[in-house]
Design goal:
Two copies of one chain form a homodimer.
Chain A lengths: L2 H7 L6 H13 L5 H10 L6 H13 L3 E4 L7 E4 L6 E5 L5 E4 L2 H15 L2 E12 L1 H6 L2
Parallel strand pairs in A: 3-5
Antiparallel strand pairs in A: 1-2, 3-4
The complex binds manganese (II) ion (MN) (2 copies) and zinc ion (ZN) (2 copies).
One manganese (II) ion (MN) binds next to loops of chain A.
Chain B binds a DNA duplex (30 and 30 nucleotides) through helix 2 and helix 4.
Chain lengths: 140, 140
DNA sequence: TCCTTATTGAAAATGATTTTCAATAAGGAA
DNA sequence: TTCCTTATTGAAAATCATTTTCAATAAGGA
């Protein structure tokens, strides 16, 4: 389902700031903080308010169009998320993030933990960190 | 390796605030924020400064005695971590967290992603969320 | 017990996020 | 197109979280 459509279903509007945030995230390829999204909007002379960036990210999160990326250091970057369940793999050097899906492979594992602990597991965060192909070359 | 020992190796001291933070986390069973650790220390009349809580958590993180827990909502809870690699499973109702280890089961999966993406993966975050046995009963 | 120095904590500084509220602009209706 | 309703914006202030500073303190080895 498209952003436009999702918004419409809820009586919400497709506004300039919302377009901008999506456009910036779309061009980014690595997780961005609210601050850095705002900065890019200034560079692009789109001049949207920082407050709107926060509000838009919250909205996009609810709509599952954006996902929060955690890190041991700087938490809370946001990346555009394609529909469906999946996770992110982030390069520690350049920040480049790629998506991967792997619920199937994990579900077996999760079932096992469920049995062992007695918990009923209904959600998880899985994030991988490493070095992307490009940065591996540069390392030589 | 014990806290006492780890500190000693680095020429650091086992102080009252450090004891307190560990004691509070030890009694907690669910991830605590710096603020809530501080509050408990006030309740316990141990009267350590909030600043020391932050500093102690940072130190304990470096020593791998404490782990940060992320959530989609309130990030940055801390739990005591037993030595070795493992993850946490958190109850969404009462917050109770349990540890589980599963590197073996995951490594296969990670190798696969590594091949698919070309990234060299060297770290990951895995956190599970669900309902603990106790809270499942109360649900009736 | 004494001395060195790692550590503490109050206060201030900084930074991130949220709230408020009057002005604006989406977008449906006419 | 024009008009109208109301969701949305953004500047500023308020709030909350985290870090820095620095003089006073207390670990803990000698
Ligand atoms: Mn986080
Ligand atoms: Mn693991
Ligand atoms: Zn890279
Ligand atoms: Zn529970």
């Amino acid at each position: 389902m498209e952003l436009q459509e999702k918004l419409h279903n809820k009586g919400l509007r497709l506004t300039q700031p919302r377009r901008e945030v999506v456009a910036i995230l779309n061009a980014a390829a690595s997780p961005l903080t609210p601050q850095s999204i705002y900065q890019r909007s200034v560079e692009r002379k789109s001049d949207i308010g920082l407050v709107s960036v926060y509000r838009t990210l919250e909205l996009l999160s609810e709509l599952n169009l954006v996902r929060r990326v955690h890190g041991r250091d700087g938490c809370h970057g946001y990346v555009l998320a394609s529909p469906g369940h999946h996770h992110h793999l982030v390069c520690r050097k350049c920040g480049k993030a790629v998506e991967f899906s792997g619920s199937a492979d994990l579900s077996e594992f999760i079932t096992k933990i469920q049995k062992e602990t007695g918990y009923k597991i209904n959600e998880h965060i899985l994030q991988l960190y490493g070095i992307c192909p490009k940065c591996q070359e540069e390392r030589q």
